[in-house]
Specification:
The protein is mainly alpha-helical. The protein has 8 helices and 6 strands, in the order αβββαβαααααββα. It has a 3-stranded mixed β-sheet. The chain is elongated, with a radius of gyration of 31 Å. It binds zinc ion.
């Protein structure tokens, strides 16, 4: 190998090394909106001639790279800019969740919320009492049957009726507990966003762990705009809706007075 070739080889070898080391934070989630393929990370040579040379990376649509306009619309994104935009979006998402939670905590401390919670508690206790009573009655029927007071078909019919009552009460208890949880926490199920928001609240540097924890897919439009699909977005929507409803509830009460 000639000296010049060797130097060229080593120069490009070094660059390839750097490319492979460059972390690809958006790997597997950055999708071209037009052709649906995953965007690929490529080195952009436009900075090589600068003094000192600078290394740029960009995400490109592989279909456009291969087939140009016949395959897809021209689409590329500067890697740093894309990561900054995604980092900012995740920060905003966390802030929106935490702010909404804080607003809900404030609403939970009002007298009105105390009354409503007492109401839920009372209804839950009543449903528990109904359930227990129905179960006791179902159990007591057997004695009547054994003593010959009830024949078999009447016994089975009445027993089923009480068991149905107990099941209905059980169902009501679950519904009330879910309603109470939504009222106080803004979500009906356990909150996965709460854990994640707490864990990554003040993150400095965006990592692929954070990206994949929060984001399911990012679509890249031909005008370079990003459409970010967050995981558990239904949880955040439910929380925001609850806060809106609860604020409305307080306004209504104040107008009523
Ligand atoms: Zn494409």
């Amino acid at each position: 190998m000639k000296k010049a070739d060797r130097e060229k080889y080593h120069a490009s070898y070094g660059r390839h090394n750097e490319l492979s080391k460059e972390p690809n934070l958006l790997k597997g989630i950055l999708v071209c909106r037009d052709c649906g393929r995953l965007m690929q990370l490529r080195r952009d040579n436009s900075g090589v001639k600068l003094d000192p040379p600078r290394m740029y990376y960009r995400y490109v649509c592989p279909t456009y790279q291969n087939l140009k306009e016949k395959g897809c619309t021209k689409k590329h994104l500067n890697k740093k800019e894309a990561e900054l935009a995604v980092g900012e979006a995740v920060r905003l998402h966390i802030k929106l969740f935490l702010d909404s939670r804080k607003a809900l905590d404030g609403l939970n401390r009002t007298e009105q919320a105390g009354r409503i919670n007492d109401g839920y508690q009372k209804e839950i206790s009543e449903a528990c009492r109904r359930k227990k009573k129905a179960q006791q009655r179902a159990a007591a029927l057997y004695n009547d049957y054994a003593d010959g007071i009830l024949n078999e078909s009447d016994y089975l019919y009445a027993k089923q009726k009480y068991l149905d009552e107990a099941a209905a009460a059980e169902q009501r208890i679950s519904e009330l507990q879910e309603m109470q949880k939504k009222y106080n926490k803004g979500c009906t199920k356990g909150s996965r966003l709460e854990t994640m928001a707490g864990q990554y609240m003040d993150f400095d540097v965006l990592t692929d762990e954070i990206v994949h924890a929060f984001i399911e897919k990012i679509y890249v439009h031909s005008d370079k705009s990003l459409e970010i699909c967050f995981r558990f977005h239904d949880e955040l929507e439910e929380l925001i809706q609850t806060v809106g409803e609860r604020k409305g509830e307080i306004c209504r009460t104040e107008t009523d007075m």
